[in-house]
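OP here, attaching both records as promised.
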Amino acid sequence: MKKRLLSLILITALGAAVIGCGNNENVAAGDNSEVPKSAGEKIELTNVSYDPTRELYAAYNELFKAHYEEEFGQTVEVTQSHGGSGKQALEVANGLEADVVTLALEGDVQVVADAGLIDDGFTSEFELDSSPYTSTIVFLVRSGNPKKIYDWNDLIREDVGVITPNPKTSGGAMWNYLAAWYYFEQQGQSEAEILDSIKQLYANVVVLDSGARGATTSFVENKQGDVLIAWENEAFLSLAEYPGEYEIVVPSVSILCQPTVAVVDEVAKKHGTEDVAKEYLSYLYSDEAQQIEAENYYRPSTKAIYDKYVSSNDSNTITEVPADGKWINNNIALTDINHFGGWAKARADHFADGANFDSIYEQ
């Protein structure tokens, strides 16, 4: 959304020269040898992330820069790139030189690993399957909820216009789809019935944006549709920015979204940024970073900080950002990707060419 583009979207082109200073300024782009960083030299780090993390990393990068300079005596300049998570993964796999990726799901990071850029075992490199924060999927509706949308079954009514991004390009859209699938499964529907329900839902989609932030713009700024299927943090940012105009509806069931982070090993080796890249992702688990994550409406992984933000209000309709800052709604049954057999199986069953999504969504 235009008002919230706090961080620059800078993309490093395939084959671009490694930018250095001091003794490294003449290193050619094609040289894959490690480029060591000397004390006092400014370090340049590129984080390729997904759409709704713009505000989070704008704040976190400043925190990390201060931490790294105090701890190691070096200045770090972090360049951000944002877009649909699936599209971002393909960009990195095809040559966009990211030192780290902080994508919407493990499956998108696996795309980069499959290109030979990330070493095996990336989900074990950092705590909690390399997922320092989590989120879930909720609905954003207009003030007063004029279409009376309360759960997933309301999204298949003929009078409801839905906004959600495209699972082919957006990791968040995959979470949206799987959360809906789980709901209809919990209603006792057979697979054929679930496919029919999902088809009805996507028949109501007004516009299929490439990423989550584009979908938010379509709903909030362009006034399209009656409901946005949204990341929890996106929904709260809209409440904060447009007070009195929108409401969050927390459905009865949803999915625990686990964004995954990883060092892009081959690029970090080339740039000589392996140590700073690891520290950049490790520090996401620090109390200071966890606090920033919570303030940006991501669910922190540290229990003590998580508990500080749990709401005592059991209503599934949220009309404003709570004045006490306690925004986490635990009144929701969450499944996770294991229910779908993990990301490799979920992709094969639902999002690969010719899989379920292709069969139900008429282009």
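Record two, same layout:
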Amino acid sequence: MEEKLNLTQEWDKTFPKSDKVDHMKVTFHNRFGITLAADVYVPKGASAPLPAIAVCGPFGAVKEQASGLYAQTLAERGFLTIAFDPSFTGESGGQPRYVASPDLNTEDFCAAVDYLSTRPDVDAARIGILGICGWGGFAINAAALDPRIKATVASTMYDINRCTTNGYFDAGDNAEARGHMRAQLAAQRTADYRNGSYARAGGVVDPLPDDAPQFVKDYYAYYKTPRGYHARSLNSNNGWNTTSALSFINAPLLAYAGEIQGAVMVLHGEKAHSRYMGEDAFKKLRGDNKELVIVPGASHTDLYDNLAKIPFDRIEQFYKENME
């Protein structure tokens, strides 16, 4: 029933392979019938069934970048983990390519839980998820939808609905600005249909302007240099389809965050330009199993791959305490 995918077998990650875990590639499908590609990381010598964590993000990245680093590191700490490519991106299936959608991308997390729940080496009662950047927002939305998710970490999160609809720091939070954006995107739909192809929005700006904001410089330093560049990454290359933005305008991701029964950690850097999105998301959460962790001195992209800044001890403790 699953689409045959062309999966790269060589190690092509942006981080070194650990000798403490076993690694393999797998596929699974979501309820829309799209086949997703994932890397599985299993701690060597661990006794099954294991607690499991599904990892995805950042928004516009692939599993060979930050999500794979998180997954491998958490596997070293005793969890069975998967890092997967979202629908329409990376090695995952789906046509047309490079489409984002709040419904589909939330479903991708739930489909990962489907897959983990049916593995014989996983304890289905101890499954968590971890979303990075825009996938932090999808992770919170998935946790509000799927009670099988016992613990959720949203790391350096974006609320893609808010950022798309209002602009950065809510600078475009008015009807006129949204009307202008809708008109541009509607015109692009007409052009795409006429052309029989989809215009791309562009990834991280290149070349980097001298007057670029610091967070844009930080994105460039990750996605456009050997530190984090990957050939399949949208942010490293030509970005999402331009009209993907349409699906986020009328779809508030965090509407039911206050109803999440499972544990949630919102993790952000002190100096992250996106910190306000995480702090506002945390304000929506209810219950004494919710945590806001601010990492001193860290920027948004420090929490992509800076092992000296990502508080893995704290993350490990959070999952172990809340997936018992």
